[in-house]
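Class prep. Write one:
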Amino acid sequence: MKHITLVLITLLFINCKEVTKAQSSESAVKVSEVETIMNFLASDELEGRDTGSEGLKKAAEYIEKTFKDAGVMVSPYFDTYLPAFDAKGKETYNVVGYLKGTDPNLADEFVVIGAHFDHIGKGKEVDGDTIANGANDNAAGSTAVISLAKQFAKTKNNKRSVLFVLFGAEEIGLLGSKHLAKVLKEKNLNLYTMINFEMIGVPLVDKPYKAYITGYEMSNMAEKMNEYAGKELIGFLPKAKEFQLFRRSDNFPFHKEFNVPCQTICTFDFSNYDYYHHVDDEVANINLEFMTELINDCVPVITKILNTNTREIKLN
């Protein structure tokens, strides 16, 4: 009888492991989903997503529909997914989605997950092509934010509230993030941290970690992300400090307004991609498998950030 009981317990344990494995696999972001989003955002139809353009408006409406379909809500700070703002005389948009926190004690604390979705429109002609599709810069980062929004809308395991933001007018001076950070500060957003995604479409070269963050030394974010990931996911890139990348992406206006850890995850290391602001920055030159793996690696990290009882990520 004892032997039979042990066998049954063993079989049950194996079965539970298989179910958990299957659920984990099912809930993971898939390469095909990443490819679908990338193919639209970096398509010729959007003509390079220039500020104020019809192509950028189409991209904004696509993201809005994706949020709606996934169950990502309009934020309590706006009455639309597409709050408009003026960018040097042109009307353009940020796209803002919202998931309310599930814990009554933590739901008033927010994490912002962001990336810019605009690009430069046209570039120097190559073989008759002038559309700068902006696949790595920054359809890749935008795809990460959209994929994460869909994932968290599905799992609903966020004690803190989240704003998923796609910024406009980054390419002409971080205007979307400057505008939004200022508005949210005026509305007394209780911001814990902001994580930005920029140019994550190709792997780093000869690095033990998968991505780096800007402003590495300014907080313990990298240390905590690696702890939450259970591996060396995030590292330090000297060139990021040399070129002051911390100040040159959409994390910076949030840090400036809120004085909390706001940093950018990136894999562009100045040697691994030849098509920065180039018409050949197309999906064909992106490593979609790597991108998907990085997004999936970020899921447990962001899950932990959204669910710790105290604010563990702090400025140094």
The first helix runs from residue 2 to 27. The first strand starts at residue 84 and ends at 87. Residues 31-307 form a domain with the Aminopeptidase fold (CATH 3.40.630.10). The chain has nine helices and eleven strands.
